[in-house]
């Protein structure tokens, strides 16, 4: 920055300019690294989490200060917690089922704060409340997250750190299922790795990215609520004939291509109701040509799986919905997508599904925050790869 100056005054002036510029830059460029943290200090997830809530994600001007060492310790803690879940993780109602988050940190905060009413985008108090009472306030809530925490949006690191914190502190109350973006080949390409490199520097960013993927390999691939509601990121599989099939999936599963059932649980899609195949009475699994891997399944396949597994409902995520959610024709499967105004390119609502103690359902909608638009647009949001995965931006089921 300093040009070859001749006089001391100029140098001082230039130094000041550089210093001011640096200060300014720190305000606008998110940095998650703090260099001066005592290396001998034991990792304290509660204090980490409390500090995390001071992230001013609403202002979008600064990020949390973490050390790389803390991040690695956080990931180790999450791995230990995931090991205690089965591959089919269980949860009791009442609880909230959350679909794709994709780095939309503000929306994640709003979801964690949703209690009884629709989530008001103007309710900024929620974030302040979380900041103040976050950790303790979470104790009575139970959440089943359907995966895709990272990629696409600008705050993947903040999102994944927060849910890892909650998983470590309340392992039985927060179930974090693995989405197709919690796989290395995908989060290499769609933003998470790049975000870590931007925030941590190239070498440490890659190290932490590798470590995150170690943790992803331990995440459960499906969840079961009250023994009757089966949850996963993508959908069902011709290889799914009993709940025991899911429990038998061995982890760590670094590459989901190595397990056909896990691959389908993370990647498959229901055939759209308008598709002629879906009115076929015969259970059908056809090649998923949109994704280029895994399968699509029709309503008869859903009904057959519900019967075979002796369950009531399947809840999955993985496809953006204009209204935040969508039922299959016979209402045996519901898609929940929780990232409103996905990638700032869609006018979709987000939704979460509340399961009451008696097993009945209600849907809570998340409207996009107008602040979201103003402050996020153009700030490091990874480009859409829709051309690769979906034909048209007008589709009501863009792939995610
Ligand atoms: Mn997905």
Distance between the termini: 42 Å
Radius of gyration: 22 Å
Helix tally? 14
The CATH fourth-level homologous superfamily of the domain at 37-227 and 319-389 = Metallo-dependent phosphatases
Subunit arrangement of the protein:
single chain
Strand order of the largest sheet: 1-5-6-10-12-11
- One letter per element, helices H and strands E, the order comes to HHHEEHHEHEHHHEEHHEEEHEEEEEHH
Please give the CATH class of the domain at 37-227 and 319-389.
Answer: Alpha Beta
Report low-confidence residues grouped into runs of 5 or more.
1-37, 56-62, 116-127, 372-399
The CATH level-2 architecture of the domain at 37-227 and 319-389 is identified as 4-Layer Sandwich
* Class based on secondary structure composition and strand pairing: alpha/beta
């Amino acid at each position: 920055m300093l040009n070859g100056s001749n006089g001391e005054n100029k140098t001082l002036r230039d130094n000041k300019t550089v210093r001011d510029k640096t200060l300014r830059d720190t305000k606008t460029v998110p940095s998650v690294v703090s260099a001066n943290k005592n290396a001998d200090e034991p990792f304290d997830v509660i204090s980490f989490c409390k500090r995390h809530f001071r992230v001013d994600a609403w202002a979008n001007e600064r990020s949390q200060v973490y050390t790389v060492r803390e991040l690695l310790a956080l990931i180790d803690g999450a791995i230990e917690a995931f090991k205690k879940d089965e591959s089919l993780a269980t949860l009791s109602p009442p609880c909230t089922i959350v679909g794709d988050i994709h780095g939309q940190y503000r929306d994640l905060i709003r979801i964690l704060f949703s209690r009884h009413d629709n989530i008001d985008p103007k309710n900024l108090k929620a974030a302040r409340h979380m900041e103040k009472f976050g950790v303790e306030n979470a104790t009575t809530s139970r959440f089943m997250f359907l995966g895709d925490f990272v990629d696409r949006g600008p705050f993947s690191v903040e999102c994944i750190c927060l849910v890892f914190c909650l998983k470590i502190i309340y392992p039985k109350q927060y179930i974090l299922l693995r989405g197709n973006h919690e796989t290395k080949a995908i989060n290499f390409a769609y933003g998470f790795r790049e975000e870590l490199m931007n925030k941590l520097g190239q070498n440490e960013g890659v190290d932490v990215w590798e470590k995150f993927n170690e943790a992803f390999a331990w995440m459960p691939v499906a969840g079961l609520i009250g023994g009757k509601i089966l949850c996963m990121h993508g959908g069902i599989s011709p290889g799914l004939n009993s709940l025991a099939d899911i429990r038998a999936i061995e982890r760590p599963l670094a590459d989901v291509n190595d397990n056909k059932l896990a691959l389908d649980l993370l990647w498959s899609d229901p055939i759209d109701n308008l598709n002629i195949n879906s009115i076929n009475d015969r259970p059908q699994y056809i090649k998923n040509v949109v994704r280029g891997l895994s399968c699509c399944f029709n309503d008869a396949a859903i009904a057959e799986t519900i019967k075979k597994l002796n369950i009531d409902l399947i809840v999955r995520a993985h496809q953006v919905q204009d209204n935040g959610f969508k039922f299959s024709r016979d209402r045996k499967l519901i898609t929940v997508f929780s990232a409103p105004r996905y990638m700032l390119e869609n006018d979709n609502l987000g939704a979460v599904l509340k399961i009451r103690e008696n097993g009945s359902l209600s849907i809570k909608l998340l409207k996009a925050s107008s602040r979201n638009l103003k402050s996020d647009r153009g700030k490091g949001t990874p480009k859409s790869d829709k051309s690769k995965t979906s034909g048209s931006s007008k589709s009501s089921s863009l792939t995610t």
